[in-house]
Amino acid sequence: MSARYQVTGSTAVEISASIESGIRTAALPPGAALPPVRALAADLAVSPATVARAYRELRERGLVATAGRHGTRVRPRPPVAARRSALRPPPVSGLRDLSAGEPDARLLPSLGPHLAALAADAGPPIGYTGGGVLPELAEAARARLAADGVPAAELTLTGGALDGIERLLGAHLRPGDAVAVEDPGWANLLDLVAALGLRPIGVPVDDEGPMVAGVAAALAAGARALVVTSRAQNPTGAAVSAARASALRDLLAGSPDLLLIEDDHAAELARVPLHPLAGATASWAFLRSASKPFGPDLRLAVLVGDETTVARVAGRARVGAGWVSTVLQRLVLGLWRDPAVAALVDRAAASYDRRREGLLAALTERGLRAYGRTGINVWVPVPDETSAVTALRDAGWSVAPGALYRIAAEPGLRITVSPLDDADITPLADALAEAAHPPSPRGFTA
Q: What's the pTM?
């Protein structure tokens, strides 16, 4: 814990509020260690049970995590608004940033012409009773999903994929329930599960998606929901194959009460066939976001599923945010209908494939195992994340440590290929090979 920040309080509520204040002001930064329970209890002249209750409340809200003998630490991205200056680490001059996980801005469609078209045909203002899913957008979304074999009779919209997942989990689960998630998996989802007070159960992943034995083990351990990434899994690039989808369907048929959530966030950027699990359980939902292909600022996802599940999500939205802006809906619809945008997205997908496959081939030539079947990320297993990240930083590259994405999976690094040019592949592969297998230190000589 920061030597400058002193936790205060005489009750569990006061102690947890003091720690939350430290997190919010960045006096307790992500990863900061909190004092052992007995040590803090002695400092504050309270019982260990009082401190333990404070830590438990913070843990249930996803602000801290306890890792056995490693103690209790602030989560990497706790769900509390911090000062703006603390939201991102300071930039390091001269480093190429391959850690962000964002699409290549050079390959995103320009929104200007479509916004101008909207302005020219704005029509009368919409009132509170005129919001909701636009029929023309719903029709287009159903056609796009039907082409991939996804049933879409029941449909609503959410403010992006993660917003949809949060609404689904909130509609079906309660704090303390177990959720099966991919391991390694999407860091934002792991943070969300923690913030909702849910219990994650890691499911191992290979190139074909969640492994059947891992899903079976999670079900046996009491998982009430399963979240699967259809394609371009973050961080490994896995995509659910036809054979894996068939095996998972057979397994899930024995768990009719399980909530099945599929996230097809890459959508048009994934150049492998979709093999959906939709309908394998009675309660299911399939999400497709506009952010990766068309731009992260387009906070819209199409959510389809069984009648009850979609009704719960739509009903909860009605008493909260109400609806996804119809201006945004019309903008996304215009992008979907524009052949030039479709051609640009196709070029972007081909470009990501070329860069990702080029890096994988270069790493294979250097004897380094790596994964990235689809999407914009490559996962590189390493013996030690800290030393590998440090070595790459010294070589001029910034990458994401695998600890952000892991529950029990082996250490690794996530490399985002979208900032890479073709000329970067060789020097990056050389640096990764050196970072993953550093030379042994020489011993003393006489």
A: 0.85
Quickly list DSSP for 245-300. HHHHHHHHTT-TTPEEEEE-TTGGG--S-----TTSSSEEEEEEESHHHH-TT---
Asked whether the bond before 184 is cis by omega within 30 degrees of 0, the reply is yes
Q: Tens digit of pLDDT for each residue in 188-230?
A: 999 999 989 899 999 999 999 999 999 999 999 999 999 999 9
Residue type at 103 in one-letter notation: P
Maximum CA pair distance of the chain? Answer: 87
Instruction: With CA atoms as reference, report the closest residue to 436 among 403, 404, 389, 400.
Output: 389
Main-chain phi, psi angles of 56, to 5 degrees: -65, -40
Is 230:150 a contact under the CB 8 Å cutoff?
Answer: no
CA–CA dist 37, 15 (Å, integer)? 12
Task: Encode burial over 44-61: b for 16+ CB neighbours within 10 A, e otherwise.
Answer: bebeeebbebbbebbbbb
Instruction: Write the burial class of residue 433 (CB in 10 Å: 0-12 exposed, 13-18 middle, 19+ buried).
Output: middle
Q: In this structure, what DSSP letter does residue 374 have?
A: S
Nearest to 34 by CA among 70, 9, 61: 70
Half-sphere exposure at residue 290, Cβ-oriented, CA atoms within 13 angstroms: 27
Q: For residue 303, what are the β-bridge partners? A: 156, 287
Q: Write out pLDDT tens, residues 76-87.
A: 878 876 654 444
Rounded CA gap, 235 and 382, in Å?
A: 14
SS3 199: strand
CB 326 within 8 A of CB 381: no
95 burial type by CB count under 10 A (0-12 exposed, 13-18 middle, 19+ buried): middle
DSSP labels, 201-244: EEEEEETTEE-HHHHHHHHHTTEEEEEEE-SS-TTT-----HHH
DSSP, collapsed to helix, strand or coil, labels residue 329 as: helix
Q: Is the dihedral of CA 424, 425, 430, 434 positive or negative?
A: positive
pLDDT value for 91: 54
Q: Which residues contact 31 (CB under 8 A, 6 or more apart)?
A: 73, 74, 76
Measure Cα distances from 337 to 28, 299, 425 in Å. Answer: 48, 18, 35
